[in-house]
Structures are given as structure tokens and as C-alpha cells.
Amino acid sequence: MGIRGIPGERIRPVRMASGEIVLRLPEWMRGMWSDLDVPLDTVEERMRFVIGLARKNLDHKTGGPFGAAVFEIESGRILGAGVNLVEASHCSIAHAEMMAIGLAQQATGRYDLGGHGMPAAELVTSTEPCAMCLGAIPWSGVRRVICGARGEDACAIGFDEGAKPVDWTEALRQRGIDVVLDVRREEARAVLQQYERMGGAIYNAGQGR
Amino acid sequence: MGIRGIPGERIRPVRMASGEIVLRLPEWMRGMWSDLDVPLDTVEERMRFVIGLARKNLDHKTGGPFGAAVFEIESGRILGAGVNLVEASHCSIAHAEMMAIGLAQQATGRYDLGGHGMPAAELVTSTEPCAMCLGAIPWSGVRRVICGARGEDACAIGFDEGAKPVDWTEALRQRGIDVVLDVRREEARAVLQQYERMGGAIYNAGQGR
Q: What residue in B sits closest to A132 (Cα-Cα)?
């Protein structure tokens, strides 16, 4: 992993027409949320859980400083959870929010988590979504988004969060999706700062530079 | 597939902690682009190829009316290609552009297609990217985006393309990514209209409605 010229890089030949994208959680996450006996009732508890995922992703050196999960709002049941796996999965799509959404959808067999008959679901993310993950939210069917750190906190350690609509929270609300910001923001930001101190990879695209 | 109440629906139980997202191309696409003997030299030819993918996706009833591919700009070599597979893969992430980007990255083993030493790559898409795919582009490392139909053409048949920055082409150019619009637009739009006539699923999230 890592880019050319960085020790540890592995350039693989193009496997033509492999035909599938596989995005796999690290071993330490397997089975984690099925073992939660006690539902996480409050947004504070849910945020603590996803910040914990982000921190463990650094401790295990399995990816970037981001964690997310999709919860049923009422029951607190976890439908899917993820961490940032861009480097490990050789795929820039593998942000924590995308993992949580995709896993929740494939686990339930429903591409629309807001489809008729589905209990209302929410995305809880340790850092405000980047432009890609923000764009993914309306398609996903979640009814609420809970954010820890701000996008500017991610930018402060070097990430390019992309071009978002100026009033992105309002754009979601217009689609019937509520947004709550700054839940345990300092705790979430501390994980970003820990990553910076570790010298973790900032996986913005190089554009040939 | 399909939503509750629609024949053919399959509700699957939540498989806790399955641990991976798998997004698989339909059988008819396997090996397709490794069989291309003649490189596609021009953007017109490349667009014809991805519009063909979109059309075949309707003919085979494997998904929505969108096709995309990542090409090496100079050589015309295809690194990855995709079609819309939201319904078949039970995953709202599985847009044509995301499939093409993810497959190109996992095939080359590089999460940044613009990383040092990589030949410049471009995304060719039969319809202008939605907000999610637009947000995915800067992370992917492609240096150019070629679009067929406009977002408004997708909206005209019922899709919600999401909230994009007002001047999204300029936002990409500021990141060093060139954009070309309206390549074979009418041909691309014809596939959208064919999908509408077929009564194809409009997989916007229901938000409980």
C-alpha cells in the first residue's frame, strides 16, 4: 500500500475483467456489532461507538481516522458499520460512511433503507461527510445524519473534502433528511489529530504530482 | 429486487457482520473489455462504448440506463467499466461510475489512479455524474471526465441527481480535472428514454413514502 516510491508499495498488474469490487472490513471488526447486547439508545452513545471504531482503525493500523454506522433510530439496532479502508482495499470509495451504508443495504437486501416498511434509519459518522459520502446519503434512504467532527477538522490535517453545496445541511433537509452536527466533536477531532501525529497517509489524489 | 409490494421482491434477513460489500458485474460484461482488440482512440468512440454498455444493461434487464468506463487517456486501454447495478446488488452505491472507478482501482491495486507513475486516466460516463459520483471523482485520481447526457436528462425521467455545487465543472477544473460535456448526448439520452418506456425502476430513496 502507499504510493509509488513509498516503501511497502505493491503495484499489482491489471486483472482484466475481474468483474467485482470487494470491500472487506478488517478482522478486528468482524462480528463486533452483533455482539452488542445493549442497544445504543442515545446519539451520544452511538457517536461514542463510531469514534471508537475510528480510533481502533488507527490502533490496528487498518486505515484512516474515520468511523461510521447505520442504526435503526428507534431500536438502536446496528444495521452496518464501517471504517475508512481506502488504502487497504485499494479503492477510494471505501470511506467509513460508504462501508456502513453498503453493508447495511446488502445485509437487509434493500438498496433503499428508507423503503416502505423499513424502520427509520440514521447514519452516525465520526466526521462530517465529504462530497462523495454526502452525495451518497440521499440515495441510501437514511432519514437522519449525526456528525462528530466538522469537515474543516478533516481539512485541518490535510484531507480535501471536496466541493459541497454551500448549505449542504439545508440541501439534505429539503430531501427530508435531518442533520445534527457537533456531537462529541472534540473527541472525534482528537482521533484526526492522533492520525496526523502518527504520520498517517493523506490519500487525496495526486493528479500526477 | 424491487421495493416492498412489487412482485419479485426478496426481503432478506439482516446478516450481521457479513463483513464485506460485494459489487459484481453481470455475466454478460465479464471479459468484455479484455476482448477489445482495437483501442478506442477518440472520446467519441469511448462514449459509444459506454452508451452501448448502458443499452445492453437494459437489454439484459440487469439494471439502470447508465454505463461508464475508466480509460488510459493516451493508449485508450480500459482499466475498468461498469453499469448501474443498484437493484441487482442491493446497494445504492453501485452506480456505473462507481463500478468503473472501483474496478479500475482494484485491478491496478492503486486507490489513486492519478498517483505518481500512473498514465493519465479519464472517466467516460453515459450521463453526467450525480452528486455522489461527482464527489467520488476527485478522490479517484482521474484527470478528465467525459459526459454524454446531461443530469437534467436523467431528472427528466424521474431520477433525483442530488445537490451539486452550482458550477460543478469549474469545481473539478480547480482540482485539475478537465470536463467535456454533451458527447453523443442525444444517443445517451435515447437510452434514458428507452428505460422510461420500459417502466424501469426509479430507485430514488422512498423516505418512508
A: B135
Reported pTM: 0.91
Beta bridge partners of A144: A122, A178
Helix (H) / strand (E) containing A179: strand A178-180
The pLDDT tens digits of the residues spanning B127-176 come to 999 999 999 999 999 999 999 999 999 999 999 999 999 899 999 999 99
DSSP single-letter state for residue A157: T
Length of chain A equals 209
Determine the residue of chain B that is closest to A91 in CA distance: B111
Task: Reduce the DSSP state of residue A81 to 3 states and report it.
Answer: strand
- Our answer to whether residue A74 is catalytic in this structure is no
Burial of A150 from C-beta contacts in 10 A (0-12 / 13-18 / 19+)? middle
Among the residues of B60-203, which ranges form H helices? 96-108, 131-140, 151-156, 168-173, 185-198
**Residue pLDDT, tens place only, B188-198:** 999 999 999 99
Q: Helices B96-108 and B43-59 meet at what angle, rounded to 10?
A: 110
Measured distance CA(A24)–CA(B20) in Å, rounded: 4
Of the partner residues B16, B29, B120, the one whose CB lies closest to the CB of residue A33: B16
Which residue in the set A91, A140, A165 is minimally distant from B105, CB to CB? A91
